[in-house]
Specification:
This protein is of the alpha/beta class. About 30% of the residues lie in helices and about 15% in strands. The chain is built from 17 helices and 15 strands. A 5-stranded parallel β-sheet has the order 3-2-1-4-15, with helices on one face. Strand 7, helix 13 and strand 8 form a beta-alpha-beta unit. The two termini are about 40 Å apart.
Length: about 500
């Protein structure tokens, strides 16, 4: 730990400008898939942490779904106690290196930071990333203490952020845990839904390895709902005492417009999975092909749309993003939107695709869009887009839809006892996250219809606590009642 610095008064701290994380230039980063932000140095991290006001009522913590003691870890960073800082974060967050990179802090903890009222808010996410990277680079990570064996066995379905978090929380409590994953490696959306320039694979692999060292078992290439059902898993043959479902939302949303089934039109799921899980960007060295042309249109303006657009750019295309609202309504993180714009990607806001035109071989060649204007706010709070009566046509040879996803239907379809709403979202007890099937709990996108990594993790923590209580308390009962968990 370094020497204590002179204490600054709040007014003095408020005058310190936010320390921006160094990044590679746009010209350099579009040439490959290396990570864009370069990370804080120790000195930069300490300077940024110094801006914390040590609030008596820290609003930043209200915005954190996993309950990190943000002021406490920031204070340790300020003092140069980086090992202490990561230890404090790990009291509540199993995936800090991931969260520091992909969580929308500008919409959560940083949004409520008091410093942000008169200055830019503290760079909480970048500091979380810094201390997590410091831990990894200095070999400081230790296996957490595991409670005495309970004799109970829990299955976790899905190895995305919800599944990994649930496995960690359940194993810590002494339960035997087996994670079932449909693909051949763990990570779920962290692997196939987030590009390597935002989240390197070794970050994910380290967390999976940590679970394996804790005694968590992984079963890959297993599709629950096809390979086996929940009833079979709860039977004497498999012997699971409880199940956590974290299969996410993997059913792509489309527009159902003319020409949507032409060749060269992908969902974001298929596009990113082919590239990041199946190595299509290395064809023919890898066997999965990817038919990407030179003029790519991306439909949508969320984080995944930015990931798709920036990926297509790195694979050599001219990329245009079409979004029916304005830039101000775009749901992407501020940083992701900025990075995309810096990387020479075109944006056509207030543009709504209404038709795709193909050639004689049924390959997409044109996109027809309505020009839109914004009216009164709709249920989302954003101004409703309406057609102006004007249209335009652009040439494209690849189109990628990024309009969000519906819930993966395999488990509900194979387990009639699992109650869902009309959109297929699994209904749970909003306090315990238990489903309508006894002993089966759920969290993440499967109960929200699509949310954030950190939200899924927070729900997994709640579900793990409920599963532990369900298994170990003789008075525990089936607590399901049909209420939906609100998407955060």
């Amino acid at each position: 730990m370094k020497d204590q610095k002179p204490k600054l008064k709040p007014k003095e701290k408020m005058k310190i400008q936010r320390t921006e994380m160094p990044e590679r230039t746009a010209e350099e980063r579009v040439l490959g898939f290396g990570e864009v932000p370069l990370g804080f140095s120790e000195d930069l991290a300490e300077i940024e942490a110094l801006r914390c006001l040590d609030c008596k009522d820290p609003k930043c913590m209200v915005g954190c779904p996993v309950g990190i003691d943000i002021p406490a870890f920031l204070k340790k960073v300020e003092d140069g106690d980086f090992a202490g800082a990561i230890a404090k974060i790990r009291e509540t967050n199993f995936l800090p290196a991931i969260c520091g990179r992909v969580c929308p802090q500008d919409q959560q903890c940083e949004l409520t930071c008091i410093v942000g009222k008169k200055n830019k808010p503290l760079s909480i996410g970048n500091l979380e990333r810094f201390v997590a990277d410091y831990e990894r680079e200095h070999g400081l990570r230790v296996t957490p203490e595991i409670e005495a064996p309970t004799g109970f066995s829990v299955a976790v379905v899905g190895s995305g952020p919800a599944g990994l978090t649930a496995a960690y929380e359940l194993r810590k409590r002494g339960h035997e845990v087996t994670v079932y994953e449909a693909f051949h490696r763990a990570g779920g959306v962290l692997v196939y839904g987030i590009p390597r320039f935002r989240l390197p694979l070794d970050i994910i692999d380290e967390d999976v390895k940590a679970l394996e060292e804790m005694g968590v078992n992984f079963e890959f290439n297993t599709i629950i709902g096809k390979s086996m059902t929940l009833d079979e898993m709860l039977s004497k043959e498999f012997g699971f005492d409880a199940i956590f479902i974290g299969t996410g939302a993997g059913l792509p949303k489309m527009l159902n417009i003319k020409g949507e089934n032409l060749n060269g039109i992908y969902s974001a799921n298929e596009y990113l999975t082919r590239i990041y899980l199946m190595g299509a960007d290395r064809f023919p060295d890898n066997v999965t092909p990817l038919n990407q042309g030179k003029k790519v249109g991306v439909i949508g303006a969320g984080n995944t749309a930015m990931d798709v657009a920036r990926t297509a750019k790195r694979l050599g295309a001219e990329v245009t993003v079409y979004y029916r609202r304005s830039k101000e309504e775009a749901p992407a993180r501020t940083e992701e939107l900025r990075h995309a714009m810096e990387e020479f990607i075109n944006f056509k806001f207030l543009s709504n695709p209404v038709e795709f035109v193909g050639d004689e071989d049924y390959f997409v060649k044109k996109i027809v869009c309505d020009e839109m204007k914004l009216g009164e706010p709709d249920d989302s709070g954003r101004r409703r887009p309406t057609p102006t009566g004007k249209q335009f046509v652009d040439e494209v040879d690849t189109v990628i839809f990024s309009l969000g996803c519906n819930v993966n239907p395999l488990i509900p379809d194979s387990t009639p006892e699992i109650v869902t709403n009309k959109w297929g979202v699994v209904l749970v007890n909003e306090e315990t996250l238990e489903t309508s099937k006894k002993g089966v709990f759920a969290g993440g996108d499967i109960i929200t219809g699509g949310a954030k990594v950190i939200t899924a993790m927070g729900q997994a923590k709640i579900a793990a606590r409920s599963i532990h209580h369900y298994l170990t308390e003789k008075t525990a009962k089936h607590t399901y009642f049909a209420k939906e968990v609100e998407s955060v």
